[in-house]
Amino acid sequence: MSLESFFNPASVAIVGASRHPGKVGHEILVNITGGGYAGKVYPINPSMDSIEGLKCYPDIASIGQVPELVLIIVPADSVADVMHQCANLGVKSVVIITAGFKEVGEAGGKLEQEIVRIAHGAGIRIVGPNCLGVIDTGHKLNASFAGDLPRAGAIGYVSQSGALLAAILDMANAGGIGFSTLVSIGNKADVDELDIMQYLAECKETKVIAGYLESISDGNQFVREAEIISHKKPILLMKSGGTGAGARAASSHTGSLAGSEAAYECVFERAGIVRCDSIKTQFDFAQAFATQPLPKGDKVVVITNAGGPGIMAADAIEGNGLTFAKLSDETIRQLAAVLPAAANVNNPVDVLGDALAERYQKALDIVAADDSVSAVLVLLTPQAMTEVVATAEVVVKQSQKKLGKPLFACFLGAEKVRPGVEILQQGQIPQYDSPESAVAAIKAMCDYHRWRHRPKRVVKLYPVNRRKVENIVERHLRLGMREIGEVESKEIIEAYGFVTPKGSIATTAEQAANIARQLGFPVVLKIWSPDIIHKSDVGGVRVGLKSAQEVMDAFDLMMFRVPRKMPEADILGVLVQEMCTEGKEVILGMHRDPHFGPMMMFGMGGIMVEVLKDVSFYLAPLTADEAKQMLVNTRTYKMLTGVRGQAGVDIDAIAEALQRLSQLVTEFPQIQEMDINPFMVGPEGTTPIAVDARISVEKVGQKK
Ligand code: COA
Q1: Model confidence over 420-433: pLDDT tens digits?
Q2: What does the alpha-carbon distance between residue 28 and residue 591 come to, in Å, rounded to a whole number?
Q3: For the chain, what is the radius of gyration of the CA atoms?
Q4: Which of 183, 193, 195 lies closest to 7, judged by CA?
Q5: Whose CA is nearest to atom 20 of ligand 1?
Q6: Is a pLDDT exceeding 60 seen at residue 53?
Q7: From the CB of 144, is ligand 1 less than 6 Å away?
């Protein structure tokens, strides 16, 4: 059902409209009438004949027609009764402002379930409960107690925190920022963040979808749908709080490193969502997206009347990975012809401290026409002769030429620049209080543009031996075993195309020595027990054993020490394995997030993974580009490509391994966590070796 009647209702009934100023039911009534809403308003209050000059009704039925939107502002224990009235009359859209539901505990939770049950039975959509209401500036509807109706604009806002929405409105009003729609979703008993985002995606007044979220109702659906929405309009989100997933005890390295933060990073990246870390950043970005065309490249030019801020902007451009535009010879020639001899005609173009508006205009005209420029940033500091207002007008006029390139302004100062800032705001030019904030907004737009134009996602499928994996996984689940030991973990990854070191299990020291002779020295010994996950912690790993005698001694010592450290462990023998010494160690892994599914991990391997924490995550299934990007996103990446004369490793082989692993965990949802650590990777053309692997499984749908 469309949510249109929440934002453009022909009539609104306010159940719990109050005669007392200061009460929520009064404030919402006057916000609706005072905001200029043109539809019918019906206050409902059994003890009043009229409120604020409007005829008052004892209940909804007495109105004589069905209101398109009902606001419920009565105490929590009366809400179900009002919902029954709505159901009987055929009301379809209800906003429940009342608090005292799920958020207060079990009894409130039951009340909430009851109202949802009534709503579902009658086909009613609910916004709330425990919310601030809804606002639609296009229809002058302020059905909230968030504050005055904001000015109209292109930002649609959804907030899970009502109180924050009130603060956002206050800040936006002060900064002259306009909205199309604002929705406080409260406990989201029915309508949730995705419903609102989908509505805003189709709303023609909304150019940018912004929001504040604490949780996401359905992770998988959110990723899928948000990706579709991001192709239509940018989504700018502030996200706080965790999913709780990270708190789950994790037995793998990947699991311990993959918190809910990493999951949200992955989701935002996949779905093209622009993440904002503060209200200010969100407004900074929203202004840019709402008013300017997307930059087609990342080449930024700066025009300034002050050297210092020009350098600050240049630093920020480079620091953010953007390109400092190299102006064409023709542009430089034209600039030199119109600017004073002392001016800098290269980027940053310094029009000098005595520049009047006309000089800015000439410089702007010339650089904006240069094909090697994708975005223009105009800096101004208020010097004695600076024409703040006239320069702001020049910038606004330039943007009206619609050259398809975004324009950004940074008028630095306070009192002296204020009249210019107002002109910029009215003229739909994003204005920033520092060069760094302006550049951050440009960067956000460039990233979003790149995301929208990324190649279509194609996930490669490798030929694998699924049956083999099925057998191992099912047997473990049948026996109630969560952890798959090293030997069978390796059989699983071998079935998906990984190469593992050769080795066999020995139950006596002599047997161990014989296996070692066959493999060739040096070898590695590892304790073999389904109960021991972190073998090195209990003295269960010995590397670099160079002779039969060393192997036998190590075997005896291991079989003596480990059972004393872990008396309850069932020890089945010792794995004698060839030792891989060539190549660099990396770690590949997966952690299944309960909300968003399998998150792949790549990072520096061996014992360093937990110390350096230089890892990157991405949601499976992975495309080749995404797998490669996971490597690029780590600090280790440079080391992998070869530094200081050291040969690089086979990057494509790691990317392929990540894709194979991504296929494995996508095809086997029973796999909850896994590590391949270390994964030894050598120079291009060599075969990487999965030295150690561990996998944990769970019956699907029976997660603890
Ligand atoms: N039908 C119609 N009117 C009713 C009613 C009913 N079933 N029950 C009560 N009313 C009337 C009352 O007579 C009263 O009118 P009056 O002030 O003119 O006498 C009005 O509705 C309000 O009822 P009252 O019992 O005085 O409640 P209240 O105003 O103190 O509180 C809420 C009601 C909904 C505001 C309160 O329960 C609440 O939830 N507050 C928190 C809201 C909130 O913070 N939401 C989340 C924001 S993020």
Answers
A1: 999 999 999 999 99
A2: 47
A3: 32
A4: 183
A5: 16
A6: yes
A7: no
